[in-house]
Amino acid sequence: MQFTKDELEAAHALVTATMFPTPQHAWPLLAERVGAEVFVKHENHTPTGSFKVRGALTFIDWLTRTHPEVTGICTATRGNHGQGQAWAATRAGLTAKVYVPRGNSVEKNSAMRAFGAELIEFGEDFDTAREEAYRVAAEENLFIVPPFHRELVRGVATYGYELFTAVPDLDAVYVPIGCGSGICGTIAARDALGAKAEVIGVVSENAPTAKLSVEAGRPIETDSARTFADGMAVRVPVPEALAIYGEKAARILTVSDAEVAGAIRAYYTDTHNLAEGAGAAPLAALIRERDRMQGKKVAVILCGGNIDQEWFVTVLEGGVPAV
Length: 323
Prior knowledge:
It contains 13 helices and ten strands. It has helices at about 5-15, 30-35, 50-65, 80-90, 105-115, 125-140, 150-165, 180-195, 210-215, 240-250, 255-270, 275-290, 310-315; strands at about 25, 35-40, 70-75, 95-100, 120, 145, 170-175, 200-205, 250-255, 295-300.
């Protein structure tokens, strides 16, 4: 999946007609921590607290232009995708039915309802909820919003467009991987703008489907994906995304829940920003690779800040949230 610079500029104009661009700050305490110049792309500063809203805006715009007969959407999420889709869909006059697994983030569930979603809990994990969303969409004649789609990625790529436009000489960018729109959008923006940065994917060691699939050269499902970094809690890789990051990511790293919790604390002490688990995973990976990145100019994607209060308290007290 490739985009021209003109395609990304058009997507950026569409996205920023509704929300402001997010900043990319170089934080000195993070630089001291890892021995590199560290830019944080603050996707925690969007209207939904996550990068996913960018793809929702471009997808719903495409949907209403190309399928004017559609009256509602259906999708599955662990929270951030659902918030973005509910917000963009209801703004466009569509209904939004959103499936989440049982035991999902209480605060993300509340936010999705506030953004206009009809929320249904189903199954024990994201992939089970996703299967049910597809079934119900077909049964009720709703338009299914998949986790990966060209128009989703084009919108998501606008954060990469902003980052590489502002800091074109980055040596590396660390990006978390769930279903893959974030890392594929980052790769697409890098390539469209002619930047040279390595794009490094990050997964949870408890949800390593992306890493296992890249190493095997084919999709590898896992039996479970139990991590409090719920944005990365995926058992089944998306083949279309795998084809992109499997070829173009420099490497895929795993991080533990303890390392992610440590990165959340680092974000709070060094920048006073909230990071959810998936949002902190890139920093956790950079901290692990700090010897390799000495003296370089790197970026980490803080993809979201929607962490439940109870989990955040546990992290600040030095613990790791149990799931």
